[in-house]
Amino acid sequence: MTTRRTGLREQKKQATRAALREAALRLALERGPGNVRVDDIAEAAGVSPRTYNNYFSSREQAIVAAITAEREARVAAALTAGPARARLADALTEAILEQYTQPRDRDEMLLVTTSPALREAFLDAAGAIEDPVAAAIGRRLGDADTSTARVLAASVAAAVRTALRQWLQPPVEPPATGGLVVPSGSLPDLLRSALAALAPALDAAEEKARQRSLR
Amino acid sequence: MTTRRTGLREQKKQATRAALREAALRLALERGPGNVRVDDIAEAAGVSPRTYNNYFSSREQAIVAAITAEREARVAAALTAGPARARLADALTEAILEQYTQPRDRDEMLLVTTSPALREAFLDAAGAIEDPVAAAIGRRLGDADTSTARVLAASVAAAVRTALRQWLQPPVEPPATGGLVVPSGSLPDLLRSALAALAPALDAAEEKARQRSLR
DNA sequence: GGCAAAATATGCGTACACGCAAGTTTGCGT
DNA sequence: ACGCAAACTTGCGTGTACGCATATTTTGCC
């Protein structure tokens, strides 16, 4: 009874949502994202244009949703499946890295690069990992301090967004930088170093939870 | 020569922007936010409706901009003015708390509560403190690791957003919580505890910078 | 002062987001 | 099996976002 609420209803809703996502991605890939109207997506998914906006509140949202749809679930799964004895920060880093290193999504990752609006929507969508991460952190912290878990999860999401934003940045012409600017490394490296900055906060929370449980 | 680029041009731009902000806020306060159209704001500011969208890309943005316009500047000022010997985390917390505790903005803070769209825009606008905070942290860290500063600033902004979101939440009817739910404390408390969770990460970065400067 | 280039303002046209008030489907109690 | 209430879909209407082409202003330069 984790996700189910009312059976057929929920089932159809998810189906419609998935149909819209996939239609949006398919059309965007074959025509280019600029040549896809909302009406086209709705038609391809077999619903009215108005219904489209009951599911997604912007044209780009459906496209990026198709790309990031399962990331959140996979992050959560990787976190709960992982060994509980590892450092929370390490478990998180591993789980997240895993999701952004899959070479399977090559085309999609290239697609989001093409338009500013898509880039923006993609960064927004990355925030969706916050909820599962908050749940996972909350579990690791013993469900005691939920609001700390929320803050840490929000920070993790922010760090991921920072890394993604830097990775998405067009390699601008260095006008006269005396070699002081790092040339925007690979995504895994960017993610690692971004999350590394948060590790002390995660460690501290973990330690506090441990002390609480001993008392 | 910090902000100036070409004199008159920039000056007029800022004037137009300010006029739009203030017109938007004034109209929203006197008619209620739902009864203000973009055309009204543009007319009140003496520009064409199209020009409005050259400055703000949503109806709500102008309203919240009027409210949060100076927050970023004030945070930056408070950070650079503060004693450099204090802990970075403390300086940050103080500077931010100061900005959200001013009783002068009572009406405005009530205004953003009234509509979901406004709440959302307000949370978005809170992200504007990221840039000045990043600059300030970067300075404190000796301008060595810019990307760490960015990540930390993004996390701080995320923490602030988390606190604000919780504060904005309508006090929902507790359906059957056995007294386990904290009843959404005051904004200063929420901000303090949110930022406290990040303090260890800020400490660690500061310590690292100190060691680097000694070497 | 006058001029060419760059930045900005405006009008227009198209596509979009979303509230509202129907109509339709689903779930549940009896 | 039946019917009711809640949830979902749909069409319509209004207001909004923004690309593009054009007119206007500002600036650096001579």
Automatic annotation (TrEMBL), chains A, B:
Residue ranges forming the DNA-binding region read 37-56
Q: Which UniProt keywords apply?
A: DNA-binding, Transcription, Transcription regulation
State the Gene3D superfamilies in the record.
Tetracycline Repressor, domain 2
What Pfam families does the annotation carry? TetR_C_14, TetR_N
Span of domain HTH tetR-type: 14-74
Q: Determine the domain of life of the protein's source.
A: Bacteria
Task: Please give the Gene Ontology molecular function terms for this protein.
Answer: DNA-binding transcription factor activity; transcription cis-regulatory region binding
From the Swiss-Prot or TrEMBL record, give the protein name: Transcriptional regulator, TetR family
Q: Which organism is it from?
A: Streptomyces radiopugnans
